[in-house]
Amino acid sequence: MRTVARRVRYRFFPERQLYFRANGVVRFVSISPRVQIVGSAIALAFICWVGITSFNFLARDEMMAAKERKIEDMARAYESLHAEMQRLQADVKATAERLRARQEYLRQLVGDDADEPVLPEENQPGTTEAKPDKAGLQPMAFFLDALTGRNDAEPSSSQEIDLIEEELAALAVRQQAIAKRLLVLTRQEIAEFDQVLEAAGLSKHDVLVVAGEKARDLGQGGPFMAWGEELSAAESATLDESERTGISGDPFMALYASQNELITLTGLFANMPVTKPVENYYISSGYGRRLDPLSKRRAMHYGVDMAGWWNTPVMASADGVVSFAGRNGAYGNFVEVDHGNGFRTRYGHLKRIKVKKGQRVERGQVVGLMGSTGRSTGPHLHYEVWFADKPLNPLKIFKVTDDVLKIQQQHTLGSG
């Protein structure tokens, strides 16, 4: 091995002399193989260094551009993740605010009485429908307040957001369950109204069409919740049965429609003329076809004749405004009271009128005295009830007097 190395050294790096001549004198310097090898190594290293440095200098711009592209890609990825996080946070807040609005709506329906029984389980034997108590809504309200009320404690990770979304979903399920149960109770109340209206000879649909817009202006409130097009009471009455019961779709939409209908019916019943206008009487002529007492010919009688003593007080059947007071042809001395929501009552053949046109009267207030003015054969009150410019049978109205007064009392106490 040494022989080969020695042979290579003497072949490529033999001893060399450098001659220098100056002023006729010749000198030389001997360069040994070792010096040549060391010098060659140094020269080779220098050439490599120059080559690498030149390459790096020439490729520096490309490397920097690649690094800048990588940094930009990382920045875009971060911005995308940040935007996604902000979107998730906004979705969580929007969901929480929507649940908060629904929570306030449920609180409004439940009321302030926290002593009422907790909502029973569905289809549980031996239980009756009960209104969910406000105390049962407090855990949801506490969570929503904690979530939507903090401005400096945003969810900072997708895991935290996922956890909050799960909790909000659970709250939404519970709210929907309460809404469905409240819907059942609301529909039961509406069914009671419907039975009374049917007994009085009224159509609930016609009542809602006539009275809906006016009754909806009565005392209402609560937070706004956008559930699509707002329905009038008449429109809510035409909803598909599955939408009305909340079996399909959003139960809050069905609950809102039913509550709107119930509010309209409540406003209608508030001034429904059901009180009998005289206390002591007998029916001398009923509603409908009859033999006219004067002409002895068959005729249509749009009211009832309530016979009694002269000067018997005649009272307003409900609160209202006097729309007519004076002489009115065959009616004689005549009073008409507008009770609102399409209802009007008429009082004819009065001996004396006790009110004036435009005067506001209350239920039970005396509007006149019984007499026999106009086309009459003796002292009596000719009494008519009109709804939406159509006459009703007052005797049917009298049959539901107790039911209507009971409903009025219940809702007056409930609103107080």
Element layout with pairings:
Elements: H1 2-12, E1 16-22, E2 25-31, H2 33-110, H3 138-148, H4 158-199, H5 204-215, H6 233-236, H7 241-245, H8 251-270, E3 282-285, E4 288-291, E5 298-301, E6 304-307, E7 313-315, E8 320-327, E9 333-340, E10 343-353, E11 360-361, E12 366-370, E13 380-387, E14 390-392, H9 394-399, H10 401-415
Antiparallel strand pairs: 1-2, 3-6, 4-5, 6-13, 7-12, 8-9, 8-11, 9-10, 10-12, 10-13, 13-14
Give the proportion of residues in helices.
40-55%
CATH architecture name of the domain at 282-401: Distorted Sandwich
Gross morphology:
rod-shaped
CATH class of the domain at 282-401: Mainly Beta
How large is the radius of gyration?
48 Å
Structural class: alpha+beta
Question: What is the string of SSEs from the N terminus onward?
Answer: HEEHHHHHHHEEEEEEEEEEEEHH
Distance between the termini: 116 Å
Q: Say which CATH homologous superfamily of the domain at 282-401 is assigned.
A: Glucose Permease (Domain IIA)
The biggest beta sheet, please?
A: 10 strands, antiparallel
CATH topology of the domain at 282-401: Glucose Permease (Domain IIA)
Structure characterization notes:
This protein is an alpha+beta fold and 416 residues long. The protein has a domain at 282-401: Glucose Permease (Domain IIA), CATH 2.70.70. The chain has ten helices and 14 strands. The chain has helices at residues 2-12, 33-110, 138-148, 158-199, 204-215, 233-236, 241-245, 251-270, 394-399, 401-415; strands at residues 16-22, 25-31, 282-285, 288-291, 298-301, 304-307, 313-315, 320-327, 333-340, 343-353, 360-361, 366-370, 380-387, 390-392. The strands form three sheets. Strands 3, 6, 7, 8, 9, 10, 11, 12, 13 and 14 form a ten-stranded antiparallel sheet that branches. It has a two-stranded antiparallel ribbon with strand order 1-2. A hairpin with a 2-residue loop joins strand 9 and strand 10 (343-353). Helix 2 runs parallel beside helix 4 (158-199), helix 4 runs parallel beside helix 8 (251-270) and helix 5 crosses helix 8. Mean pLDDT is 78; it is low at 112-130, 133-143, 146-153 and 215-247.
